[in-house]
Amino acid sequence: MKNFKGNSGKSIWKTIVLPVIICVAMLAIMIFVVLKFNQMSLQQDQELTLAAVRKAAVQCFADEGRYPATLDYLVENYGVHIDEDSFMVAYDCAAANVFPNISVFRR
After folding, report:
1. Half-sphere CA count of 82, side-chain side, radius 13 A
2. Residue pLDDT, tens place only, 88-100
3. What is the CA radius of gyration of the chain?
4. Is the pLDDT of residue 48 over 60?
5. Dist. CA 41–CA 44, nearest whole Å
6. What span, in angstroms and rounded, lies between the C-alpha atoms of 96 and 101?
7. Using CA of residue 42, residue 48, residue 54, residue 56, what is the dihedral sign?
């Protein structure tokens, strides 16, 4: 009887506990990878938004000889699209001939 109990304990460990631990570890790794990918994607989207606004401001200066006074002007006339659910853009134009101060922040 003693040998039977000892083998039963080892068999439960090998058939139930070890696979559960492995599955939980794999799930934790997968969640970490997905969250890291999401963070990298948001960072890239933030950089692309900043680049798009800067490019549109430069294009406006080339076309019209002045930088736009507001971000709305770029959105309406130069096709800039901003994901307002994810980002907030700070656009500060001091003068028509000075490149504006542009910053993109995550919400």
Report:
1. 24
2. 999 999 999 999 9
3. 28
4. yes
5. 5
6. 12
7. negative
Residue whose tokens read 């080339």: 62
Q: What's 85's DSSP letter?
A: T
Which residue's structure tokens are 């948001």? 42
Contact 89, 83 (CB under 8 A): no
Question: Which residues have a Cβ under 8 Å from the Cβ of 93 and sit 6 or more positions away?
Answer: 67, 68, 69, 70, 100, 101
Residue listed under structure tokens 């798009």: 52
Question: Quick one: tokens of 56?
Answer: 């549109």
Which residues sit opposite 102 in a β-bridge? 91
Q: 27-39: buried (b, 16+ CB within 10 Å) or exposed (e) per residue? A: eeeeeeeeeeeee
* Six-digit token string for 85: 């659910």
Of 4-13, 41-50, 86-95, the poorest mean pLDDT is in 4-13
Distance CA 27, CA 12 (A): 22
